[in-house]
């Protein structure tokens, strides 16, 4: 079924109201946004659809649209038509909070897929929790979101409505540490962008790397909007480490890599899932060669369970690639849809189904695009797989996939 992607509708709405950043559309293949009949329930999406991180956000939007279209076509939730409402969070906490407030005020919104940024998730979680709206993230990796700030010593789930389909930094950081240690890298300098994601990722990496006997020779923080890194690079020039581990996002890591190489320091830069994007290589150019990143999940081409998603996405007419989080967003949407099969069955209104949807998500279990989809007592995935990639010949190459424990 070829159809106009929902993203086209989203972007049209953005052109009219760029600050509000919201749009909605029917996930059932009708580009007009008019449901085909029956009662209507809406799945919201909160993600960046413009700005530096929009490739991630648009891949998420498209993947949710695909899952909803398939559900409507198959009649997955009898008597109900599902729709998608998209809010552009601009990858900023304040805008994300406004987006959550807007969705929570809509009586037809029953659940939300999002966000990309962990910092945005922190702002969104309490708003949706107050409205009993389930939130399933395909991309947040900060461990504190599901286990609290004292997760290492006293884990406590902050919000019962929050779930995620991806691994956390508690898995991702140690995988990176073990990879560098086995590669013979004995000294590392860390850099973080001062944000929730970057700091948590560096903390998880540092703890694991030092436990393995590695030396963190320096630890630096930069501003999230910094574009010049001379103070940090000057320190690296005097005593180059075996590698630099950067907790941040690809729009910032790419110029850091360029400036580091231009200064004469020829060591690999490694980061997390927010570095693993084709745009990183485009921005960093030839200086990206040999750099490393971990990302959540296994490569889609390596999973038999991912093929239906990959094929359907290709047939969907979407202008943008699914990117790293697309399969996880598809699984997040399908987890919600399976919960709705129960929660909407006896509901008179969508609001009546909000809390039962949260409860039903706890028991969801199915084989999805990313493998087994299910949640533990904290709302975390029970399948926290992480893959290490390296830039070779102008592309990300798979080095190692580590099953979660």
Largest sheet, if any? 7 strands, mixed
**Helix content percent band:** 25-40%
Helix count, DSSP H or I runs of 4 or more residues: 13
User: How many domain modules?
Assistant: 2
Q: What percentage of the residues does DSSP assign to strands (E)?
A: 15-25%
Structural class: alpha/beta
Q: Helix and strand string, N-terminal first?
A: HEEHEHEHEHEHEHEHEHEHEHHHEEEE
| Relevant CATH superfamily of the largest domain | Response regulator
According to CATH, the fold-level topology of the largest domain is Rossmann fold
Shape call: elongated
Number of strands: 15
Features:
elongated, Rossmann fold, 405 residues, 15 strands, 2 domains, 7-stranded mixed beta sheet, alpha/beta
Secondary structure blueprint with pairings:
Blueprint (H helix, E strand, L loop, with lengths): L5 H11 L5 E5 L12 E9 L6 H21 L5 E9 L4 H12 L4 E6 L3 H13 L3 E4 L6 H4 L14 E3 L4 H14 L4 E6 L3 H16 L3 E7 L8 H9 L4 E5 L2 H13 L6 E3 L6 H7 L7 E5 L10 H9 L10 H18 L6 H12 L3 E4 L2 E4 L11 E7 L2 E8 L3
Parallel strand pairs: 2-3, 2-4, 4-5, 5-6, 7-8, 7-9, 9-10, 10-11
Antiparallel strand pairs: 1-3, 11-14, 12-13, 14-15
Helix pairs in contact: 2-12, 3-4, 6-7, 9-10, 12-13
